[in-house]
Amino acid sequence: MNKIRTCLQESPETRCWLIVSKFALGESELNTWLRKEVSELIKIFNSIIAKTIKRRKSPNHNAHKSRT
Hints:
- The chain has 68 residues and is mainly α.
- The protein has one domain (2-67).
- It is 90% helix and 0% strand.
- Helix 2 (12-25) packs across helix 3.
- The longest helix is centred in the middle third of the chain and has 31 residues, at 27-57.
- The radius of gyration is 19 Å and the shape is elongated.
């Protein structure tokens, strides 16, 4: 969780949003929400990475590369 916070606190806008959200939701609820959002993003990124790897391994990808 600390890595997530460090990453999010890089921009002043995000830092301000976190402070306001912390007061509005409470730290516990904010942490729960952030964990949920990050886990959803990880699923999306993993899916994108898997599709890219699959595309690169396909015979059509190699045939296209050799034509260019």
